[in-house]
């Protein structure tokens, strides 16, 4: 609308709708009220989208000036914008609510993550974790607690899901294809993600403490291979996902990846269980 439409009062759009444009940032920040930082996050996002459409600075369209003085995305700023104090309170409140099996998973993953950060021997072993959890077992609750714990410590924990609906359940969740620029591929090919070195997304991956992917079973195994290849290349580490702790979850009883014109065997070949060992 700003770039391609001739609006009579462009500045009035922001005054009337800024809360609507900022609602996602308010939710992700865990704050209870709108503030200047949240509005700036929304303006930064609008600025990014205007640049993508070939426009200029949003101040030229009558909107307030954003923090983006250069043409960069705000992906890192978004991951660092969480209210650490509020997250710490939520972790302290929800941790005692874990049942016995959830506690084992939580302690195992956090022990590995903390040991890896501290270069301890206890972090040895595979950096991949798969949480097989049918509906109603508290999978989302556990994943969000892991995310909140890591973020409350000021560390980076991107959260993605194979589907948009599943992404909305995760705190700060996005779809994997949007987050990692996973290309559209034929079912039998593997291509690296469209992430170039020195971009904001590449820098985010270098800073990542743990990566969470929900509903991974519904993704084609080649999408994980695409991310794995990209992570190894960007982080210069030959290990699975570049050595970053990778927590994926899903229900193996759910829908298999969709293969155009494919039969049952084609779907089984392309599912996660048919993937190679990282």
From TrEMBL:
GO terms for biological process: DNA recombination; DNA repair; telomere maintenance. It holds the Pfam family PIF1. Keywords: ATP-binding, DNA damage, DNA recombination, DNA repair, Helicase, Hydrolase, Nucleotide-binding. Residues 97-275 form the DNA helicase Pif1-like DEAD-box helicase domain. GO terms for molecular function: 5'-3' DNA helicase activity; ATP binding; hydrolase activity. Its EC number is 5.6.2.3. It is an enzyme of class 5 (isomerase). Its cofactor is Mg(2+). The keyword DNA damage applies. InterPro entries: DNA_helicase_pif1-like_DEAD, P-loop_NTPase. It catalyses: ATP + H2O = ADP + phosphate + H(+). Gene3D superfamilies: P-loop containing nucleotide triphosphate hydrolases. Belongs to the helicase family. This is ATP-dependent DNA helicase.
């Amino acid at each position: 609308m700003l770039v391609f439409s001739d609006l009579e009062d462009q500045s009035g759009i922001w005054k009337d709708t800024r809360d609507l444009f900022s609602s996602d940032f308010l939710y992700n920040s865990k704050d209870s009220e709108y503030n200047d930082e949240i509005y700036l996050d929304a303006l930064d996002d609008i600025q990014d989208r205007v640049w993508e459409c070939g426009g200029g600075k949003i101040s030229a369209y009558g909107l307030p000036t954003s923090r983006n003085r250069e043409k960069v995305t705000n992906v890192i700023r978004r991951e660092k914008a969480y209210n650490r104090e509020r997250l710490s309170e939520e972790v302290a409140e929800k941790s005692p609510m874990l049942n016995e099996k959830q506690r084992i998973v939580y302690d195992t993953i956090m022990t590995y993550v903390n040991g890896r950060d501290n270069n301890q021997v206890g972090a040895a072993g595979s950096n991949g974790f798969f949480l097989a959890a049918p509906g109603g077992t508290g999978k989302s609750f556990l994943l969000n607690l892991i995310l909140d714990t890591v973020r409350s410590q000021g560390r980076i924990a991107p959260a993605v899901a194979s589907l948009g609906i599943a992404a909305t359940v995760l705190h700060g969740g996005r779809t994997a294809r949007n987050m990692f620029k996973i290309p559209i591929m034929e079912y039998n090919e593997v291509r690296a993600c469209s992430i170039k070195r020195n971009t904001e997304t590449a820098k985010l991956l270098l800073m990542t403490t743990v990566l969470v992917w929900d509903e991974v079973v519904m993704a084609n195994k080649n999408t994980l291979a695409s991310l794995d290849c990209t992570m190894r290349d960007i982080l210069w580490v030959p290990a699975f996902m570049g050595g970053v702790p990778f927590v994926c979850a899903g229900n193996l009883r759910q829908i298999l990846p969709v293969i155009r014109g494919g039969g049952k065997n084609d779907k089984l070949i392309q599912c996660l269980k048919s993937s190679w060992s990282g």
